[in-house]
Q: What sequence folds into this?
């Protein structure tokens, strides 16, 4: 099998220079050089056939089944017209200020045109509703549902009970979450109040200590701050400060707590008191029956001593 050999001399491939010369002379046109015949499509408006086809699938139903309406556009409300003017003025200012010396054309503004289009649709629907309700009333067709209207539910009672339980569970969860949030907020507020109270007490204590230091150093002789502090801490009108007799007796018997070790040791003041060591002072007799140190002046049937009794026997 012999190989096919392409002979360069026999090829009819034009060079770029020849193509450029032909294009310069006007022999070549831009695009495809082969001309294609254009077939113009003819549109035929066959009204008779269209009407006949329309009659084939047209359903002659009463108006209540179709509710089709052809109405005009309802008049524009004054507030909407004013809003549209304000929008156009605002868009004009924005366009002229941002784009320089450009004349504003409201018909070419897409934002304003969209607003007008939506308003037109709204007015068209408004006019259709007014006309439709009027025609329904003429046909004695009610347009409002009565209060005692009964309609069969699409779902069963069991399904609706499940829905109700689900809704009640969601409401309970929301209420529980709200209650927890309120308790958390109350704790935060109480903690904040407690911190503020402690800070205030610390500030008052620091101020009192500073005034006390000034008094100790001799820079001040005013001690009124001690009385003010005592007056602030006292609650005379508080019924809780009433004296409990039982508590007072226990305090008198057992003390108020605190340091007890070494409480009976002598002090400088006790050693200087020598009233108990005065021999000239008469010792008060002690009555064991009445547990009283008062002297008993009345001496009835006092028994004589042993020596006197012996002498009396002799």
A:
């Amino acid at each position: 099998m012999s190989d096919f050999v392409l002979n360069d001399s026999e090829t009819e491939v034009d060079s770029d220079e020849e193509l450029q010369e032909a294009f310069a002379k006007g022999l070549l046109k831009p695009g495809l050089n082969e001309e294609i015949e254009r077939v113009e499509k003819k549109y035929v408006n066959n009204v008779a056939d269209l009407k006949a086809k329309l009659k084939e699938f047209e359903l002659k139903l009463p108006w209540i089944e179709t509710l089709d309406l052809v109405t005009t556009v309802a008049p524009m409300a004054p507030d909407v017209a004013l809003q549209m003017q304000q929008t156009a003025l605002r868009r004009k200012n924005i366009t002229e200020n941002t784009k320089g010396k450009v004349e504003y054309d409201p018909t070419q503004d897409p934002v304003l045109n969209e607003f007008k289009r939506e308003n037109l649709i709204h007015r068209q629907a408004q006019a259709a509703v007014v006309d439709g309700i009027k025609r329904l009333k003429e046909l004695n067709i009610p347009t409002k549902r009565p209060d005692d209207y009964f309609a069969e539910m699409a779902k069963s009672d069991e399904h609706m009970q499940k829905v109700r339980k689900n809704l009640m569970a969601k409401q309970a969860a929301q209420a529980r979450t709200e209650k927890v949030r309120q308790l958390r907020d109350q704790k935060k507020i109480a903690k904040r109040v407690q911190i503020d109270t402690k800070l205030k007490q610390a500030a008052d204590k620091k101020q009192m200590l500073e005034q006390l230091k000034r008094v100790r150093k001799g820079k001040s002789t005013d001690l009124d701050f001690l009385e003010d502090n005592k007056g602030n801490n006292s609650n005379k009108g508080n019924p809780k400060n009433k004296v409990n007799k039982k508590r007072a007796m226990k305090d008198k018997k057992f003390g108020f707590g605190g340091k007890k070790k070494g409480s009976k040791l002598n002090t400088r003041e006790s050693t200087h008191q020598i009233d108990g060591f005065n021999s000239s002072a008469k010792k008060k007799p002690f009555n064991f029956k009445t547990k009283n140190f008062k002297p008993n002046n009345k001496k009835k049937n006092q028994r004589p001593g042993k020596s006197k009794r012996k002498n009396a026997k002799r």
About this structure: Confidence is low (pLDDT under 50) at residues 1-13. The CA atoms of residues 235 and 299 lie 54 Å apart.
